[in-house]
Amino acid sequence: MAPLIIVSVWFIVLFFALIILLKSADYLVSFAEKLGNKFNIHAFIIGATVVAFGTSLPELAVGITSILGGEPDIITGTVVGSSISNILLITGVAIFISTGFVIRFVNHRIEFLLLILSTILCACFLWDKSFKLIEALICLVLLAIYLVYVVWFSNKNFEPSKQNVMIIHKKEYALFALSSFGVWLGAKYTIDAITNISQMLSLGNDVIAQTVVALGTSLPELAVTLAAARKKQFGIVLGNVMGSNIFNLLAVLAIPTIVGVWVEKPYFVYDDGFNQFSIPLMLLATFLLVLVSFFKVTPRSFGVLFLLLYIFFLVGSFLKINLFLFF
């Protein structure tokens, strides 16, 4: 009876954590819109920097904690799993619930190329089941290039509006800080609740890393996406997904690795099935995201496809499917 009561308590914690997460993310998107209007900043830049990096902080926290705790396989599973979740689940939901969803490759060539490069590079780095210091430094250099491009060059064709400039009151900045904390707090207790529930139900750590924890750390992006999709802010949706993936693959892998070097903890991937299932699926998800960017309007059928592939990812992770057995 006692374990049942404890599980029930964690379900209650999960419920309230999700409420805090969703409400905070909704205000975060509203404020991002106001901020972009006030300073004439393109919605994609807001999504790819402030929103994307802010919602990726849970992954970074998980990564550093995992390294310090001597369990680096959790962060690799979380990063790859989050990258898959961001594309298949988050973009899939956005495409499915939106009318006229559009993401254009021609408008974001460099961003897409950086995403492709980051995905392929990290897949190669992780394939040998180790992530070294030199690889971490390469990732940080690429991240710096991405930030410089987004901030200084991505907005060059954006025509600033001189009318209806939004006025932001001081209390709204305080609410923005509070909502950012709310996203982090909601995500933290969501992760804690899901992890505890999974452990009580006797799920393996490797499965938790790339499914439960990855899903939990992707919930801020999902919450922001739902809010942005309702407002038809597709630039924020795309920028959030791409920015989060680039940040996860580059910073969330690199920074914990550097921390691990300082505390003399090696950074390895232990699960044999990890490379044979999750990494190929991450590459496939990235390819599909690039593919839909060539459509004038993304068909809702792609949203269904993305969601079905995400279900396949969850099932395959639990069953530890080897994708190479299909070829």
Q: Care to give the gist of this entry?
A:
By secondary structure, the chain is an all-alpha fold. It is 78% helix and 0% strand. It has a single domain, classed as A middle domain of Talin 1 (Up-down Bundle), CATH 1.20.1420.30.
Q: Report how far the terminal alpha carbons are from each other.
A: 47 Å
What fraction of the residues are assigned to beta strands by DSSP?
A: under 5%
Domain module count: 1
Count of helix runs: 11
Helix-strand sequence? HHHHHHHHHHH
CATH architecture: Up-down Bundle
- Determine the mean pLDDT: 77
Helix/strand class: mainly alpha
CATH class: Mainly Alpha
Instruction: Kindly report the oligomeric state of this protein.
Output: single chain
Provide the low-confidence segments as ranges. Answer: none
| CATH homology superfamily name | NCX, central ion-binding region
Largest β sheet strand count, sense and barrel closure = none
How would you describe this protein?
The chain is mainly α and 327 residues long. It has a single domain (43-157, 213-326), classed as NCX, central ion-binding region (A middle domain of Talin 1, Up-down Bundle), CATH 1.20.1420.30. It has eleven helices and no strands. The protein has helices spanning 2-38, 43-55, 57-68, 72-97, 109-127, 133-152, 170-200, 205-230, 234-262, 272-292, 300-319. The radius of gyration is 19 Å and the shape is globular. The N and C termini lie far apart (47 Å). The model has no long low-confidence stretch (mean pLDDT 77).
